[in-house]
Amino acid sequence: MKKILNITDRLEDRKRTEQIETYRSKFESVQRLLQCSGCHFKCSMCGHHVERSETTARPMANDFNLCGNCLAEFEDFLSISNNDNEKEEIFWHTEEWVELWSSWMTFQRALNAFKTSINLKQLNHRSCD
């Protein structure tokens, strides 16, 4: 019985391979998005070039790769989100500003979830064949 191949698995594998070939340009754009979003030489928020020594010296660098200015804004966001009233009020720290940072964090979580998804791992594996 071990020599009998499961036709369903083979058909599914063939279908995925055909999709990779058909949608190669879309796949390449997804790859660029994931690679560029994870670049350690640019700020994850603003895209500004970041020196390697600058990112390793910061405690937040483990979670996000932020330049000094964006890190300061992110820390303000965390402070405001935690209802820490010790920070001075800055006029642009509005509800829209909080929504901007909240949306950015949601986007970062979605990127990380997608990067670690089983489908992406299968796609990366199949594209190398």
Question: Could you characterize what this model shows?
Answer:
The chain is mostly helical and 129 residues long. The protein has a domain at 38-127. Helix content is 62%, strand content 0%. It has 6 helices and no strands. The longest helix is centred in the C-terminal third of the chain and has 21 residues, at 95-115. The mean pLDDT is 81.
Give a short overview:
This protein has 129 residues and is an all-alpha fold. Helices cover 62% and strands 0% of the residues.
Q: Topology of this structure?
A:
Elements: H1 7-22, H2 24-37, H3 52-56, H4 68-81, H5 95-115, H6 118-127
Helix content range: 55-70%
Quote the average pLDDT. Answer: 81
Report the strand count. 0
- What's the SSE pattern? HHHHHH
| Alpha-carbon distance between the two ends | 28 Å
Please state the overall shape, judged from the principal axes of the Cα atoms: elongated
Largest sheet: none
Return the structural class.
Answer: mainly alpha
Note the total helix count: 6
Could you list the spans in which at least 5 consecutive residues all have pLDDT below 50?
A: none
What is Rg?
21 Å
Measured by DSSP, the beta-strand proportion falls in: under 5%
Supply database-style keywords.
single chain; 6 helices; 129 residues; elongated; mainly alpha
